[in-house]
UniProtKB/TrEMBL annotation:
GO terms for cellular component: vacuolar membrane. One of its GO terms (molecular function) is iron ion sequestering activity. It comes from Ilex paraguariensis (yerba mate). Residues 107-134 form a coiled coil. The chain crosses the membrane at residues 83-107, 140-162, 169-190, 202-221. The keyword Iron-sulfur does not apply. This is Vacuolar iron transporter. Belongs to the CCC1 family. It is a multi-pass membrane protein. Keywords: Coiled coil, Ion transport, Iron, Iron transport, Membrane, Transmembrane, Transmembrane helix, Transport, Vacuole. The keyword Transport applies.
Length: 225
């Protein structure tokens, strides 16, 4: 912002001096007032927590549970039909289970928050107003079911067209590995958390889930049950 100031020199005439003052606002503080009266907002990543949690957990559960189920069946059956049918059953059953479980869980949270708001409003003799920050059970259930189905489709599509037994197992592990890294990075990006740390944590957990399922099923199958 520039302003003109007039100075008087001793025994001399007046002269104008152009004084320039540069003001740099602090953009790191939410609600900071700039000299022009503009308010700077910083995005709150916690606002994404509700649907992000349901979507990320649903996708990872769909990916890992379906892939582990297919690997378990593949440990004792070499035909592609058995693996695909087990994967489809896992996708449908898991998506329904995730949706119902998420709906019940979030609805319970919703009831608790509404009851607390009612108590506070009665204490202050005010009326309960609509609050957009309240959890949405239907939104959480839909996000969880769709994400589960999307995750479960990855190993199914990877194994659907591979007839060779060993190649099919390798393809399932490979596509699941890339999907885990992708889901981990995407969830970390949306949540504003470190991508590498989140991706590696999910990847290692996925490898353990598939390995343990394959190994235990192979062991039990070798007993002749």
């Amino acid at each position: 912002m520039a302003c003109m100031a007039t100075t008087r020199q001793p025994n001399g005439p007046q002269r104008s001096v152009d004084e320039t003052q540069e003001i740099t606002p602090n953009n790191d503080i939410e609600g900071q007032q700039t000299p022009e009266g503009l308010e700077i907002e910083v995005f709150d990543y916690s606002k994404r927590a509700q649907w992000l949690r349901a979507a990320v957990l649903g996708a990872n559960d769909g990916l890992l549970s379906t892939a582990s189920l297919m690997m378990g069946v593949g440990a004792v059956r070499t035909d592609v039909k058995s693996m695909i049918l087990s994967g489809i059953a896992g996708l449908v059953g898991g998506a329904c289970s995730m949706a119902i479980g998420e709906f019940v869980s979030v609805y319970s949270q919703y009831d608790i928050e509404v009851a607390q708001m009612n108590r506070e409003n009665r204490a202050t003799q005010t009326e309960l107003e609509d609050n957009k920050d309240l959890p949405n059970p239907l939104q959480a259930a839909a996000a969880s079911a769709l994400a589960f189905a999307a995750g479960a489709a990855v190993p199914l599509l990877g194994a659907a067209f591979i007839k060779d037994y060993h190649a099919r197992l390798g393809v399932v592990v490979g596509v699941v590995t890339f999907a885990l890294l992708g889901f981990g990075s995407f969830g970390a990006y949306l949540g504003g958390t470190p991508m590498v740390k989140s991706s590696l944590r999910i990847l290692i957990g996925g490898w353990l889930a598939m390995g343990i399922t394959f190994g235990l099923t192979k062991l039990i199958g070798s007993t002749g049950l």
